[in-house]
Sequence to fold (279 residues):
Amino acid sequence: MPLHIALAVAPGAPPSPSALAMRLCDIWRDRGHRISVTSARFVEADCALLHIDTTVIKPELVPEAPPATLFLNRKVVDISKRRISRNLVLSADDYSGPVIVKTNGNYFGLNLTPESHRHKLMKVLRKGAGPKTWRYLHMLPKTAYPILDSKADVPDWVWRRDDLVVERFMAEKEDDLYILRLWMFLGKREYGVKLYGLRPVVKSDDLVRYEYLTEVPEELRRERERLGFDFGKFDYVLENGKAQLLDANSTPTVHSDSKPSPNLLNLADALSDMFAGRC
Fold:
């Protein structure tokens, strides 16, 4: 039975073509379903997915929908570090290990919808901050989080900033390579990826190789339930065999490919799972 699937977005902020949700919509469209992208205040569809690429979604941007609509990620309106992290370090904490200074906002604090004048100015100022100058400019580098030997090395101004957080720094390594693990999921469908990089914070520009994972740590499943995610991506590492959540993303992207991978097709099948008892 053809379904109507709606992506609920912010006004003037269409999803990126590389957004995982858009890739899934392409698959669903090919399977005969109707797809719409809307910023309307009321959404009428069989299934809606809240897809606003910002850290904290303002209540007025979350549309209403009929009770019968399957509204995915409706409760995911705050993915700030203070909301998701269990590894925050405060100035008064008795912790002596390495720390990392991050923005409270997702994606280096660069995404904000709608964007304020102050936020635009902050983004401009951050362009001048680098590994050697950020302490004196009172501004984190644009695309790098400082890693420090201990919280004693954290500048005083960081502790006073609401837009910054300090976390325990946890590095997973195999031989000389650093590890970052990803968990992608929609409903009961999922897949994992293990990334190998050259630097402590693994990014795509220094990726050496990757492999797919078939098992998901139970700690992550409990975190997903706590945070109310139906769809998204969790970044994590293993510390002493236990999964530690680093980041939660409700609007993940994937590298574009002309043909959907088996993993994407598997995620797309979640739609049939969700409506198996409804249709």
Observations:
- The first strand starts at residue 4 and ends at 8.
